[in-house]
Amino acid sequence: MYTLATPTREQCLKLIAQVEMPPHIQNHSFMVAEISLYLGRFLKQEYPSLDLDLLQASALLHDIAKAPSLTTDESHCELGARMLEEWGYLHIAPIVEEHASLESYRLQGPLNESLIVNYSDKRVKHDEIVSLEDRFYDLMERYGKTREHKSRIWRKLDLYRMLEDKIFARLPISPEERELMELSPQTYSPMAWESYER
């Protein structure tokens, strides 16, 4: 059954449990959600149409298919989008599908939930907040097997630097803001997740 409703944090956690998401992927997802909401609170002042509930749900579920994709050899982004479509969450599916890729044309429009989740994901190595450079050096070590792969990764880093500039251009914080760098999955209690201004 299709729905335009956004799953609550509790519903997202039930879906995460339903697919038996491994703990390390859960922790990564929780951290991506923390960063997404942290940035979203600031960005909503510049982009009032940002939906913080959608932002939270999309961040929590962005790697919903990570574990099963390792056995099926499918793209976890595409598989995750299909799963969310089957569950009826049609407005979350595209965000999940786009979270691991970035094309230059997407930087031309306003910031949206998809770009924020995408950026936040690139700031988290496993469950640790790092700079874009640190995250991409890690990607280089893991996936830069050929000169072509390495070149592709560096080109992506340039795009993400542009996205970072776009996100922080009008914010009163920097990408290395101490409060941002010190976020952790345990920083906020379940009640505090609901306390963000909507």
Structural topology:
Elements (H helix, E strand, L loop, with lengths): L8 H10 L4 H21 L8 H10 L4 H7 L3 H11 L6 H6 L14 H10 L1 E2 L2 E2 L2 H12 L3 H22 L9 H4 L8 H4 L5
Helix pairs in contact: 1-3, 2-3, 2-7, 3-7, 4-5, 7-9, 8-9
Describe the structure concisely.
The protein has 198 residues and is an all-alpha fold. The protein contains eleven helices and two strands; from the N terminus they run H-H-H-H-H-H-H-E-E-H-H-H-H. It has one domain: Hypothetical protein af1432 (Orthogonal Bundle), CATH 1.10.3210.
How does this model look, in words?
The protein is an all-alpha fold. It has a single domain (9-187), classed as Hypothetical protein af1432, CATH 1.10.3210. 59% of the residues lie in helices and 2% in strands. It is built from eleven helices and two strands, in the order αααααααββαααα. The protein has helices spanning 9-18, 23-43, 52-61, 66-72, 76-86, 93-98, 113-122, 132-143, 147-168, 178-181, 190-193, and strands at 124-125, 128-129. It has a two-stranded antiparallel sheet with strand order 1-2. The chain is globular, with a radius of gyration of 16 Å. The two termini are 26 Å apart.
